[in-house]
Amino acid sequence: MHLSVMQQNQYCGYPQIFWTNSSALSSSDCAPQMGLYHSSGIVADQDNCLPLPVPERKRHRQNQGDGTHLCFLVVFLLILLAIMGIGLAMFQIFHLQKKLQQFSSSGCVPPSPDMLKGALNKTAEKKVKRSAHLTGKAIQQSHPLEWETTHGHAFLSGVQYKNKGLVIDETGLYFIYSKVFFRGQTCTSQPLDHMVFKRNPSYPDNQVLMENRKMNYCVTRHMWGKSSYMGALFNLSRQDSVYVSVSEPALVNSEESKTFFGLYML
């Protein structure tokens, strides 16, 4: 029994899709725009049909393909970066070989590691500022005066203290200073001499650098104290030794803020 045209038209605008054996019933891979199902089959307008939606399996395969392409792109970029790094390293090696060839052709020999180490040590020695500050030492019985080299404010930097004197190991311009504080219980009329001198193996005699003398420094039958300070610039040579001497070592006060001796290189 067939339906009338009027009955068929009431289903217009509602696409009908029928599935049989897990596939849509369509002769041209599209869904009929309108149709009815009855015992004899499908009644549909074959001229007007709608495209079928893409099955979910095809979408899943498309997503997998996009991920694979992205993975291949990342691997390609990593390989490209590795090749660029190897090329840069080879270029640097080639540049160094070219420099070595230039040294060899010009007769210049690259410095050995020992030569470089020696040059670095010399540079480090020059950076060390040669200086020393010595303070008074208790119980002075002879001259030259003895000094404290480690305690309190005393220090040595690039200068040696040997046999009561400061030994110079580099020729240059030095500022030398010395301060001595004398103290006594009773007054005497003898002068107080304060002297800075140097010695050198090339000269047999001592060479006076600075000298000071104190007279009339006390009052009879009273405790007294008197200080003497000297400082000046001198050119010192290698192996010079600088000393301090006084006429009355027993009267020297050993406080580090009152009696001291030092130098520094300019």
Automatic annotation (TrEMBL):
Topological type in the membrane: Single-pass type II membrane protein
TM stretches of this protein: 67-94
InterPro entries registered for this protein in UniProt: FASL (IPR028326), TNF_CS (IPR021184), TNF_dom (IPR006052), Tumour_necrosis_fac-like_dom (IPR008983)
Subunit structure: Homotrimer. Interacts with ARHGAP9, BAIAP2L1, BTK, CACNB3, CACNB4, CRK, DLG2, DNMBP, DOCK4, EPS8L3, FGR, FYB1, FYN, HCK, ITK, ITSN2, KALRN, LYN, MACC1, MIA, MPP4, MYO15A, NCF1, NCK1, NCK2, NCKIPSD, OSTF1, PIK3R1, PSTPIP1, RIMBP3C, SAMSN1, SH3GL3, SH3PXD2B, SH3PXD2A, SH3RF2, SKAP2, SNX33, SNX9, SORBS3, SPTA1, SRC, SRGAP1, SRGAP2, SRGAP3, TEC, TJP3 and YES1.
GO biological process: extrinsic apoptotic signaling pathway via death domain receptors; immune response; necroptotic signaling pathway; negative regulation of angiogenesis; negative regulation of transcription by RNA polymerase II; positive regulation of canonical NF-kappaB signal transduction; positive regulation of endothelial cell apoptotic process; positive regulation of phosphatidylserine exposure on apoptotic cell surface
Ranges where the THD domain occurs: 130-266
Role description: Cytoplasmic form induces gene transcription inhibition. Induces FAS-mediated activation of NF-kappa-B, initiating non-apoptotic signaling pathways. Can induce apoptosis but does not appear to be essential for this process.
Provenance organism: Pseudonaja textilis (Eastern brown snake)
Family: Belongs to the tumor necrosis factor family.
GO cellular component: cytoplasmic vesicle lumen; external side of plasma membrane; extracellular exosome; lysosomal lumen; nucleus
Compartmental location: Cell membrane; Cytoplasmic vesicle lumen; Lysosome lumen; Nucleus
GO MF annotations, alphabetized: cytokine activity; tumor necrosis factor receptor binding
Record protein name field: Tumor necrosis factor ligand superfamily member 6
Pfam families per record: TNF (PF00229)
PROSITE patterns per record: THD_1, THD_2
Keywords noted in UniProt: Apoptosis, Cell membrane, Cytokine, Cytoplasmic vesicle, Disulfide bond, Glycoprotein, Lysosome, Membrane, Nucleus, Repressor, Secreted, Signal-anchor, Transcription, Transcription regulation, Transmembrane, Transmembrane helix, Ubl conjugation
Main location: membrane
